[in-house]
Amino acid sequence: MNQNGRSLVKKNRSRGEDDWMLESWFRDLEGSTFGRQIPIAYLVRIKDDFNRRYAGGKVGTTTANGLNREFGPKLTEHMKYCVDHLEEINKLAKVKAHVTEVKGVMMENSEKVLDRGEKIEQLAKDFKQQGTKMRRKMWFQNMKIKLIVAGIV
C-alpha cells in the first residue's frame, strides 16, 4: 500500500478487518493532486461490480443490510485497489477525459459538416434555379432578336 493508503486505513480490532473511513479518504484525496478522480473511480468500480452481481433482482428481495456480509468485503477490495493504484487511475481518468473531449470535438465537427452539406445543397438548388431563369431569359431575348430580324427582312 502506498503512503496515502497507510494513512487511510483504520484497523477494527474487534472484527479483525479493515474499516475504511470513506469520508476522510474522500477529503484526503480531494485535497491531493488527484482531485475527485480517485473517489469517482472508486464509486464507478463499486457501481459496476454491484450491477454485475445483483442485476438479476436479488437487491429487490433482500432485507435492509442484507448484503453487508456478501458485498461489504468487496467495498474493501475496491478501496484497496484504488489506494494501491492511484497513479494508474489518475492516468485512466485523464485518458477518459481526453476521449470525452475528443468525442465532443468530433460531434461538433460532424454537425458542422452536416450544416455545410445542407448549405451546399441549398446553393446547388439556387444555382440550378437561377441557371434555368437565365436560360429562359436568354431564349426569349434570342427569339425577340430573331423576330425583329425576320420582320426587317
Textual characterization of the structure:
The chain has helices at 3-8, 22-31, 37-54, 58-61, 68-84, 86-152, and strands at residues 9-12, 17-20. By secondary structure, it is mostly helical. The protein has a domain at 3-84. It has a two-stranded antiparallel sheet with strand order 1-2. β1 and β2 form a beta hairpin. α3 runs antiparallel to α5 (68-84). The longest helix has 67 residues, at 86-152. It is rod-shaped and about 110 Å long.
Compact summary:
This protein is mainly alpha-helical and 153 residues long. 80% of the residues lie in helices and 5% in strands.
List keywords for this structure.
single chain; 153 residues; mainly alpha; two-stranded antiparallel sheet; 6 helices; 80% helix; rod-shaped; disordered N terminus; Synaptobrevin-like_transport; Longin_dom; Putative Longin-like domain-containing protein; coiled coil; membrane
